[in-house]
Amino acid sequence: MTSGSTARPNGQLQASKICQFKLVLLGESAVGKSSLVLRFVKGQFNEYQESTIGVAFLTQSVCLEDTTVKFEIWDTAGQERYHSLAPMYYKGAQAAIVVYDITNQETFARVKTWVKELQRQASPSIVIALAGNKADLANKHMVEYEEAQVYADDNSLLFMETSAKTAMNDLFLAIAKKLPKSEPQNLGGAAGRSRGVDLHEQSQQNKSQCCSN
Question: Where are the stretches annotated Disordered (predicted)?
């Protein structure tokens, strides 16, 4: 057994490397950003989720084969009056999920503005994912899957249709796999904010929470 590894109940070695990344969610109000986060972090879904005021902060981990990816999730408010605050939240983010409602064409058009803003102002290495949420309402589709896929391909975005209601969402896992895993770095350093930070030496206690729902 290698140093720093612990055995899982099934006998496999638990990943010894823990990397931390800042992830921000952007998109119009009522597209389901908070619902996606709540389902991912707590495995819960509320039919009538209250609108986020300003920003909400949560954390959750994803276990890969040799690394535990810990997400610091910043769920931003979608109301226009909060738009000017968004750069404060996506600054230094290694990943962003831009969310639209598949039943609302206007929210998809708005997504393109967010993507351009991220491409212009966020870190050049940021991983941007496009989420077509409310896939459980497929009979009310207004944004075709193919249209969104072409847009995502043209802009080098990860893309999935998601549903917080039915827990149809592998996007966080896909992001975790795509993010670069760096060597151990100082959390306070600039490099630590632009790349993954290995928390193994600093957060041994987090291992017991790996992959918790």
Answer: 184-213
Q: Model pTM?
A: 0.77
For 83-106, write each residue's pLDDT tens digit: 677 788 899 999 999 999 999 999
CA distance 213 to 61: 9
Q: Do 4 and 16 touch, CB atoms closer than 8 A? A: yes
What domains sit in the chain, N to C, each tagged with a CATH number? 17-178 (3.40.50.300)
State the chain's maximal CA–CA distance in angstroms: 54
Torsion of CA 37, 109, 151, 94, to 10 degrees: -40
Residues facing 198 on adjacent strands: 19
Contact between residue 72 and residue 22 where contact means Cβ atoms under 8 Å apart:
yes
- Per the CB < 8 A criterion, the answer to whether 107 and 28 are in contact is yes
Long-range contacts of 145-151 (CB under 8 A, 24+ apart): 147/108, 148/100, 148/108, 151/112
* Number of Cβ atoms within 10 Å of the Cβ of 186: 10
